[in-house]
Design a protein that fits this description.
Elements lengths: L1 H6 L8 H11 L2 H6 L3 H12 L5 H5 L15
Protein name: Chloride intracellular channel exc-4-like
InterPro entries: Glutathione-S-Trfase_C_sf
GO molecular function: chloride channel activity
């Protein structure tokens, strides 16, 4: 989430084992129930850096990144 937000970085699709690991992680109730929203992750990092979120970011509907590339087979 942070790599995409701050550096436009995405995990390369060639790292198939990492994507499979993430797929299985996303299936776990323990992960989905404890994972903060993307906006909360970004807000926490910004607070650590001494910056603040913009008002429109605070009012956004929470999103949760839990997808993998379509061509990766679990």
């Amino acid at each position: 989430v942070l790599g995409k937000y701050f550096a436009d970085f995405e995990i390369p699709e060639e790292l198939e084992n990492l994507w499979r690991y993430m797929f299985h992680m996303y299936q776990l109730d323990a992960f989905t129930q404890s994972c903060p929203a993307d906006q909360d992750i970004i807000n926490h990092y910004k607070q650590q850096q001494g910056t603040r979120m913009k008002k429109h970011e605070e009012l956004e509907t929470p999103t949760f990144t839990t997808s993998i590339p379509a061509n990766i087979r679990p």
